[in-house]
Amino acid sequence: MRFLDVRPCALSELYIVRAWRGADRADTSSVIIGATCVVQPLDLVKTRMQISGMGGAAKEYNNTFDAIGKIMRREGVLAMYKGLSAAIMRQATYTTTRLGVYTSLNDAYKQKTNKTPNLLASMAMGMTAGAIGSFVGNPSELILIRMTADGRLPVAERRNYTGFFNALFRIAREEGVLSLWRGCVPTMGRAMVVNAAQLASYSQAKAYLVSSQLLQEGIGLHFTASMFSGLITTAASLPVDIAKTRIQNMKVAPGEVPPYKSTVDVIVKVIRHEGLFALWKGFTAYYGRLGPHTVLTFIILEQLNGLYNKHMGVEGSKSGL
Questions:
Q1: Disulfide check for 148: which of 47, 80, 197, 233 has CB 3.0–4.6 Å away?
Q2: Per residue in 221-238, pLDDT tens?
Q3: Whole-angstrom Cα distance, residue 296 to residue 126?
Q4: CB contact set of 236 (below 8 Å; sequence gap of 6+)
Q5: pLDDT tens across 60-73, in order?
Q6: What string of DSSP letters covers 240-307?
Q7: Are 54 and 47 in contact (CB under 8 A)?
Q8: How many DSSP H helices and E strands does the chain contain?
Q9: In a 3-state reduction of DSSP, which class is residue 214?
Q10: How far apart are alpha carbons 129 and 92 in whole angstroms?
Q11: 197 near 233, Cβ under 8 Å?
C-alpha cells in the first residue's frame, strides 16, 4: 500500500487521485482516523459498560453518563483516551481493508450486471468485506479492548500497556503470536453483522431516498442515509460486540478454565445472569460512537469517490456505494 506525501496547503484533487491509485481506494479510511480521536471516549465507555456486571456481579454504571462521570472522577480526564493508539491502528487496518474490499466488490457488481446491487447482494458484499477486514485488524481490536478495560482492574492486576506497539510485542512474547488473534471468530462475526447492516443499509437507504425523489445526490443524502445506517448497525451488532469484548478482555492463567468458551456461551451466560436487555448494554455510548463515525466515513468516502471518478472519466454513479 503506497501512501501519499502531501505538502502543507497542497491537498488538491491530483493528490487525492494519486492516493486512490496507490491504495486501490482503500486509503479513504486514513482520512477519517481523526474522527477516532473524537469518539474514543465513547468507545472506552462502551467497553467498560459491556464488561460491567460479568457473572452476575453488581453493575458498576447505571448509564453512559454515570460511567463517564465515574471514570473521570476515579482515573482523570485523560483516562478517557486510554487505548487511542490502538484505536487509530484499528482504523488504519480494519476500516481501510473493509472499505476497500466493499467498494471494489460493489464496482465489480455494477460493471458486470449494469444495475445497482439489491439488498441481498449488498449484505453479502458487506459480510465478505467485514470478515476480511476484521481478520486483518484483530490484533488492533484485541489491544484496544485490553487498554480501554485496564483502568477498572485492581492495580496489581493491570496490564499497564504503554501504547499499541508495547502491547503488541508484550502479547506476542508473553502469550504467543497467535494470541493476537484471540476472539477472532466473534470479531469476524461482529464485523460481518456490522458490515452487512452498515454498508447494506446505507446503500439501500440511499437508493430509496433517490428513487423516491426525497433527496438528490449530495451531502444531505449521504448524511441522512448514514445516520439511518448507524442506528440499524448499532441495534444489530451490539450483542455480538459484547461477546467479542468479553472474550478478548478475559485473563486465562495456565491450567485455568476460560470464563467463556465461545460467542454463544457469552450470550447465554449474559442472558442467564444479567437479563436479555444486557445484550444491548452501552447502547447510547455505542451509537454515540458509531453514528458520527458512520456519517464521517460515508460522506468523506463519497466525496473522494466523486473526485476519483471525475479524474478517471468514470460516468454514471458518483461512488461505489
A1: 47
A2: 888 999 889 889 899 889
A3: 18
A4: 193, 194, 196, 197
A5: 888 888 999 999 99
A6: HHHHHHHHHH----TTPPPS--SHHHHHHHHHHHH-GGGGGTTHHHHHHHHHHHHHHHHHHHHHHHHH
A7: no
A8: 12, 0
A9: coil
A10: 15
A11: yes
